[in-house]
Design a protein that fits this description.
Radius of gyration of chain B: 21 Å
Order of helices and strands of chain A: HHHEEHHHHHH
Helix content of chain B: 25-40%
Structural class of chain A: mainly alpha
Number of helices of chain B: 12
Oligomer: heterodimer
Mean pLDDT of chain B: 88
Strand content of chain B: 15-25%
Shape of chain B: globular
Radius of gyration of chain A: 23 Å
Mean pLDDT of chain A: 86
């Protein structure tokens, strides 16, 4: 069932991480990604891994929810890992069969890449798990505000939040239409690729029709309220920084420093 | 017996913070020929229950049994296509299921999926469009998206009827219609039970529209069946019904008030006509 998908869906809780300002959380994620890309040996990820565990602990999000996000990318991870394993030609050979060659360095490389992908997804999922889509777009708008003169920052933010807002609605709509067509004997999981693609038409057409009418109604409602994105709009909920944000940013800075030191000194 | 449900349980989004126990130990047997009304406030599990009947929600192991005619839904190899040809489902706002170029093609969608012959499909499409009160020749080649709201709903219902189901399930078929549109749809459903389908199951949160036609009423609240009774007897529980947020028909309210004032009526009036007649009787007037 489509509505059971909870990939990166906001997990409501009251915690240190939830209460951080979305701007500093975005900054933290950028710093975290930097740290992940500095690492180039599987051992280095011990630091990253313990950092993630620490954040999960402080966010009160169950480990299960975070791990669930990896499940979705597991196919991609295994696929790239296997490719990396055999396309890395240099180094000490462990195993060779025809054009296939497995090297020690190749194994390490593909392991590093796999862990890198997993940690990246875990880190970014923690952001969406602890931040509402609204807060996220607010934060982004605030970060981009210096570029107001050259970019329609507020328009971009409102487009983003409307998009995010309608994802669950469209999911529900898909679910409803699929059920109605299934009840009329349609099946979506039988036959070859072409047949399956064709079977989706009875879902896609009504979906398009209703999305367009929804967009139309929304535009009408915005206009009826004299909505205009251009003047300087004020916010009901203002973003404020607190000690938590300082702690978070410093912790991420320390992570980068730690990873860099470990790497340059070859400690691990 | 056409549908037998035993000990059905269902939970949405198990193990997440959004977990919700939607159905709790539901036991329900629906007989052939029943016009069953299921009422209950929003979120009481009505829709979840009927989605189970049609195999749209898969039964989980150990969480209940459902049998529809000879099809046992507990079995892994249950023939879902045959099951769905037995049960016609009219969802809320059914007009959203319209997709094909012409009305005829759209109405033929279900019987085609169920493997009916060409002649059968055409005959069923013609009959079902006429049953819902549309002129077959006039409407068959029009695009369903060019029709008016009321016509769209009729075409969508015809699209369900064209498979000639034994059981017709309707989920709030009157939502979003004006009073006269509502009456027309209800009259249509009543007519269908006589002519086209054997059993009707209708969901509503409005007792008014169900009480008049149903021979049996199931009241649901918070995922359980509260009462399983007849339309006239269900109003003995008026206080409880009001408590869970259901409206009582005005005619029943008036009868209850009259009883409090010492004028008991001899029937439970489900509409204004019977109310008028029973008041006249109670006052000793002529009931011609």
């Amino acid at each position: 069932m489509v509505r059971d998908i909870s990939f990166g869906q906001y997990y409501p809780a009251k915690s240190f991480v939830h209460n951080m300002d979305p701007r500093s959380k975005l900054a933290c994620v950028v710093m975290f990604i930097t740290a992940v890309f500095i690492c180039d040996k599987p051992e280095h990820f011990l630091l990253i891994g313990s950092f993630i565990l620490l954040v999960i602990l402080f966010s009160k999000v169950p480990l299960k929810s975070v791990l669930k996000s990896i499940k979705g990318i597991m196919f991609l991870v295994t696929f790239t890992a296997v490719l990396n394993l055999f396309f890395y030609k240099e180094g000490r050979i462990i195993f060779e069969l025809g054009p296939l060659r497995l090297t020690y360095e190749g194994a390490i490389f593909s392991l590093t890449m796999a862990i890198r992908l997993i940690t990246l997804v875990m880190g970014t999922t923690l952001l969406t798990l602890t931040t509402t889509p609204m807060a996220l777009t607010d934060g982004l708008e605030s970060i981009l505000s210096p570029f107001k003169k050259i970019l329609p920052v507020h328009d971009i933010a409102i487009i983003m939040s409307i998009t995010l807002r309608f994802i669950p609605s469209l999911m529900g709509e898909i679910d409803r239409i699929m059920m109605a067509q299934k009840a009329r004997g349609a099946s979506f999981d039988q036959g070859g690729l072409v047949k399956r693609a064709k079977a989706l038409l009875p879902v896609l057409i009504p979906l398009f029709v209703s999305s367009f009418s929804l967009a139309d109604e929304l535009a009408l409602a915005l206009e009826a309220r004299c909505y205009s994105a251009t003047p300087n709009r004020t916010k009901y909920k203002k973003l404020t920084l607190s000690y938590r944000d300082a702690v978070g940013v410093v912790a991420c800075g320390a992570l980068i420093a730690g990873v860099a030191i470990v790497k340059s000194l070859g400690l691990l | 017996m056409s549908i037998e449900i035993k000990g059905l349980n269902f939970t949405y989004m198990t193990g997440s913070p959004f977990q919700r126990h939607a159905l709790k130990d539901i036991d329900l047997t629906i007989n052939e020929g029943d016009f069953l009304g299921i009422i209950g406030p929003t979120g009481s599990g009505k829709s979840t229950l009927i989605q189970h009947i049609n195999g749209l929600i898969k039964l989980r192991k150990g969480l209940g049994n459902i049998k529809v005619y000879d099809i046992d839904l507990t079995s892994r190899k249950a023939d879902l296509l045959r099951l769905r040809s037995y049960i016609g489902m009219v969802f809320q706002y059914p007009e959203y299921q319209l997709f094909d170029e012409t009305v005829l093609k759209d109405v033929s969608f279900a019987p085609k999926n169920f493997g009916y012959s060409k002649e059968e499909i055409l005959a069923n499409a013609r009959q079902s469009l006429e049953l819902v009160g549309l002129d077959f020749e006039q409407i068959k080649d029009r695009s369903p998206f060019d029709l008016s709201g009321g016509q769209k709903r009729r075409v969508a219902i015809a699209g369900v009827l064209a498979a000639k189901p034994r059981i017709l399930v309707l989920d709030e078929p009157t939502s979003g219609l004006d009073p006269s549109g509502k009456r027309e749809i209800l009259a249509l459903i009543d007519n269908l039970r006589r002519k086209w389908v054997k059993t009707v199951i209708m969901i509503s949160h409005n007792i008014d529209e169900i009480a008049e036609f149903a021979n049996r009423i199931v009241v649901m609240n918070e995922g359980s069946i509260l009462y399983d009774t007849t339309p006239t007897k269900v109003f003995a529980y008026s206080d409880k019904l009001r408590e869970i947020g259901l409206d009582i028909p005005h005619s029943v309210n008036i009868a209850n008030l009259l009883k409090e004032k010492g004028i008991p009526l001899d029937t439970v009036p489900l509409n204004v006509e019977t109310l008028t007649k029973s008041i006249i009787r109670a006052l000793g007037g002529d009931n011609g």
